[in-house]
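> run fold Methyltransferase-like protein 17, mitochondrial
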Amino acid sequence: MATQAISEAAQKIVTPETLRNVAKQSERCLVVPLRLRRAIKKYLREQEDPHMKRKVLRLSQSFNTVKNINLQLTTTTSKEIVEDPLKSLEQSKRWKIKSSYGDIGLSYRDDETVAYVASRMPAVYSACYRVLKEVHRRLPGFSPAKVLDFGAGTGSAFWALQEVWPKSMQKVNLIEPSQSMQRAGRSLIQGLKNLPLIHSYDSIQALSKSIGKSERGHDLVIASYVLGEIPSLQDRITIVRQLWDLTQDVLVLVEPGTPHGSNIIAQMRSHILWMENRKHRKSSLKNEEACKDLTTQKAGAFVVAPCPHDGACPLVKSGKYCHFVQRMQRTSSQRAYKRSKGEPLRGFEDEKFSFVAFRRGQRPREPWPLDDINLETLKEQHAKRNPEDLEIDYEDWLKMQQADDDAPHEVANAITYDSDAAETENDDDGDDNEQDEEETDSADLGGGWGRIVFMPVRRGRQVTLNVCRSTNRNASEGSYDRIVVTKSKNPTLHHQAKRSIWGDLWPF
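> ok
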């Protein structure tokens, strides 16, 4: 009976339509919301800065300098902190933060803030939106009411939160040490309706002093593009532990999609999973019977995305690094102030990012999507065809061809933009007419969904996929495998593979 239930559940997932909906986690070319584009344009117009292009160029050079510094940084902590982050719990409690956000050498004053809003804010928004949208898809019942945004900057993550969970958020705490960034963030949200209650703080310590113990728990905590600006590995670990203590459900970390950013995400992932597994084992040993229900429900942590497992990252020793790409249509401010190297500026840009999303508790045990499913080969499908279905009336075929010829064709390589004129209109409800995206089926959080890393390679009737996957049913270990899907052996999965892109899920 149980086997039959699993089979029926798996059968529902593997129908072509639901498979496509469940596996699709990536976003195609993203268009920044109209109200955010309007807010940016209004903010920049109020600055009346004639040297904006120069400031944007200086900010870009500063980012490159920080990137070079990161590559040359010596680790300020012992090797044991990376290999065994909580080797001594007593010692870890005595850690004090010596460096903080911004100590890497990049401080955001008014000039840098204006340049950031003009050039970088839409790209950071697109990465945060892509990550939070996946969390929403993987956890359809999750609706955060209380949110903490660490390193909020000008509010890129806040705008993404507003798009993904516009009706559930009630209170948002923002932590941003730069007063210039705080002012810009407040200016950008002026005029928005139905905003949650917002409080801004300079540091985690200031937040802790202002709230009571009962208010420390946040449904969602996000730290985007901030950990890389903390030079000390020990301080990063300490801050992430503090953020995890402020999290009662989901923690999301986002960094640039560089080797350095990916390495930070891998270290923080390893640390939190190790720490929670250790706590879970200790509490189980103390009182196995009394604490059984408590440890099962509240103790521990698992990765919601992108990893399909909670084991060691298989990419760490492969010479590759885990990152993803979100393409976005450039806003009018980006096209106006960004410079290109000798070529016309493209109408889009690709934002590379690395991320991890954790949830408290134990990973749910779900059947794998291809359990008890016998997918037909191409030869078997052909054998079942009805010869009458293959007959084509010649006159009907001619009419179909004529209809195709008369249909208007799209112009190749045509660059189209959303109406920039709409950004200057005074209608505050411009987004109300936009249709909400249809909710897709959710992929379960068992070990049966792998992650496509890097772009699939299509050659003739076969597709090669690089997939990070779980190697066992409890998702405690994983591997990085190259999978070849051919049309002759599996036309159903081949049809899906042709439409899959970097960042999508893959069923096992």
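Residues 18 and 441 are 7 Å apart (CA to CA).
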